Amino acid sequence: MAHALTLGRRGQGRCWPNPAVGCVIVQAGRIVGRGWTQPGGRPHAETVALAQAGQAARGATAYVTLEPCAHHGQTPPCAEALIEAGIARVVAPFEDSDPRVSGRGFVMLRAAGIAVTTGILAGQAAEDHAGFFRRVEQGRPWLTLKLATSFDGRIATASGESQWITGPDARRLVHAQRNQHDAVMVGGGTARADDPSLTVRGLGVAHQPVRVVVSRLLDLPLMGQLARTASQVPVWICHGPDADATLHKAWEGLGARLLPCTLLGRQLNPTSVLQALGQAGLTRVFCEGGGTLAASLFEARLVDELIGFTAGVTLGAEGRPSIGALGLEHLADAPRFDLVETRAIGPDVMHRWTRRTAPE
Fold first, then answer.
1. Which residues bind NADP(+) (predicted)?
2. Which of 71, 164, 251, 359 is at a distance of 20 to 30 A from 232, taking alpha carbons?
3. What residue numbers does the annotated binding site for substrate cover?
């Protein structure tokens, strides 16, 4: 199962809106088939592994990182494929929460005489499939917020200089993290100030995540990197109802996809933004700020995972904060996160946290 989970992660960022599933088929203690969900979501992991195993699948055990699907979509259900291949036993962590499946796959397998074992490495599998479950159950993608800051929590000097606070090792890891997400998201202010490309570079990968900009008025540089490359790498812009129609037409002409969202006061409603991204199929979004967008996401309790890269440099109170004003008066109202891991990345420190859902 651990190997199947590793295989499934190869599909993260490439198979949305489908889950990134891994499958390993074992016959007499020997692996005879391996597979993971392919780009675009098809074919499924089980189909790939069964094709590799061939006749060796008969009487074998299939380790799958999610309940095999039971519904007819673009392809026949994987539970049916496992039955037809003669699989004797299926091991999976848990049921799929998608209402089209939700236990039906296991029912089909057991009705065909296949032994089903669940609960294996369920914690790791739940983390891997968190984005898929979040979209199915809440209609929005899993949101990871990444902040690269000085020791005192600043993202730039008072003049706006920010390249580079963290070192090359940290920046390379950020590119790897982008590669594991469906989309990279920034606010309009960051897009205007930094003119970012938001692509994965230096890893030798051809795939690129969707690039999302949250800009109420669509007032983004029409000669910037995002505009110049919108026809080659997807650019989605979440905008408000008061966006200029001329800019709307201009961005569509450049190849961008525009997602209308509602307002919350004078800003875009962050819940509406994530719901729009979920409706468009995204399951995992990697947000890289800026401060205003980060604050709105914290206020709406939408940050599921927080990744910080902290450098051994201090910029002082006049430096630009990583998170905008939250309007907190009481410490009890501050959003809380639980530490998952911390490690040195070159001269910097990475720390990863997940949102606390249970009371202390």
1. 148, 164, 190, 194, 290-296
2. 164
3. 162, 178, 198, 201, 288
For domain 140-355, which CATH number applies: 3.40.430.10, 3.10.129.10, 3.40.50.300, 2.170.150.70?
3.40.430.10
Topology of the domain comprising 1-127: Cytidine Deaminase; domain 2 (3.40.140)
Residues 6+ apart with CB under 8 A from 354: 304, 305, 306, 337, 338, 340
Q: What is this structure's pTM?
A: 0.92
Give the CB-side neighbour count of residue 164, counting CA atoms within 13 A: 10
Dist CA 192 CA 300 (whole Å): 24
**Alpha carbon 63 to chain centroid distance?**
24
Annotated binding site: 44, 69, 78, 148, 162, 164, 178, 190, 194, 198, 201, 288, 290-296
Rounded to whole angstroms, the Cα distance separating 287 from 174 reads 11
pLDDT 10s per residue in the chain (360 long)?
999 999 999 999 999 999 999 999 999 999 999 999 999 998 999 999 999 999 999 999 999 999 998 876 666 799 999 999 999 999 999 988 877 778 899 999 999 999 999 999 999 999 999 999 999 999 999 999 999 999 999 988 888 888 889 999 999 999 999 999 999 999 999 999 889 999 999 999 889 999 999 999 999 999 999 999 999 999 999 999 999 999 999 999 999 999 999 999 999 999 999 999 999 999 999 999 888 999 999 999 999 999 999 999 999 999 989 999 898 889 988 999 999 999 999 999 999 999 987 544
Write down the number of H helices and E strands in the chain: 12, 18
Kindly list the domain boundaries of the chain, sorted by start residue. 1-127, 140-355
Backbone angles phi, psi at 143, to 5 degrees: -115, 120
